[in-house]
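Researcher: Structure prediction, please.
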Amino acid sequence: MSVETSSPAPTESPAPAVLLDFADVSMKFGDTPALTGVDLRVARGEFVSVVGPSGCGKSTLLRIASGLEKASGGSVAVGSKRIGYVFQDATLLAWRSVRRNVELLAELNGIPKAERATRAAQAIELVGLTGFEKHLPRQLSGGMRMRTSLARSLTLDPELFLFDEPFGALDEITRERLNDELLRLFVEQGFAGLFITHSVAEAVYLSTKVMVMSGRPGTIVDTFEIPFDMPRDPDIRFTAEFATLVGKISHALREGHR
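Model: Predicted structure follows.
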C-alpha cells in the first residue's frame, strides 16, 4: 500500500508591523485648511521622508503623529507608545550638561536613576559624544547639540522616530555627517522613521521611501520607492542614479506646488 504525502504549503513572511497609519487625514486651524486627504503609512524597518513647499503642513503631520495635535478628520493609528521626536531646534536645557540633557526624557518617564544613567551612557556612545558628557550646550557645535537631542530620544528605545527638519540649520558638511550617523543608527536600531525635510537630496539619501506633498492644503501627490540598499554607501550621492532620482522627485515637487 502506498501512502501519498504532500509538502506543507510555503509560509509567507509576515507583513512588517505598521507603526503609523494616516487614512484620509485632514486638518483645519479655524477655517483655514492645512491638510486634506492625507494617506501615509510607516512600517517597522521603513524610513519615510516627506518633502514639500514651506507651509504645506509637513510639521503638522508630525504633531498629529506624536499626539501634540488632533486631526480634524480621517483616522490616525499609531502602533507604538515608544515614540522619539527630534525637533528643528535641539531644545537643550542650557544649565544641564550633555549627560543630564540626555537623561531628561528618561527622568520625566520615571526611569530609576541608575537605569537612566546606563541608558544615557549608551546613547551618548551611539551618537559619538563620548568625552563630552560634562559639557554644557553653549560649549557644543550645532551638530553636537543635535547629536545630544538625538541621544535624548534614544534613551527611550523608540520604535517610531519622528524628525522635524533636524539638520536644516546646519552647514552642508555637518549635515552630511549627521545623515551618515542617522542611517547607521537606523540600520543598527531597527526603528521606523518619519523625516521632514526641504532637501530632496537628503530625503533620497536617508530614505526607503520619499513622499511629495502639494502646497497648502497639503496632500500626498507622489511617492517614490528608493532602490538603494541599506547600509548605504555615502558615495552614492555622487552617482548618476542618485542624481536622476533627485531630479525626478524635484520635478514632482515643482508640479505639486503649482
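Model: Residues 172-189 form the longest helix (18 residues).
Researcher: Thanks, that helps.
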